[in-house]
Fold Alkylhydroperoxidase AhpD family core domain-containing protein.
Amino acid sequence: MNMALEARISNPAGLLPDSVQAANLLYKAAHSAGVPGNTLELVHLRASQINGCSACVDSGARGARKAGETDERLFALAAWRDTPYFTEAERAALALAEAATRLADRSDPVPDEVWDEAARHFGEKELAALVLWIATTNFFNRINVTTRQPAPQHWG
């Protein structure tokens, strides 16, 4: 059943323009802490895949490709644990993104081993940026999925 045929309301950011400034500040903060841009792109895309946010999956994949990501890595992202395409730091960031996105799936949502592996690759400021970016991605995913914001149609 395809329920995402039509948005329930216009994009909430368009209806509440003050939210755009807040979103831009979150984006800027997360992207200014030294985490590689491609890692943030992968984290955003993976959380969006988990949440089934078509608009963010579409924009995330396009943004990642524009930033230089290969199709090979993008196609394998959902199965990142079983492919050789990702660095250890990227794997740690992806594990953190999955755990922080699936909070209700286990009694210890972000286990020490996931956090400790991320901390092995990222400093405190970078970890803060990753957590902020994962939370921001989940924020947008929930808005878009709830209001059925569609992925844009691309022709050609």
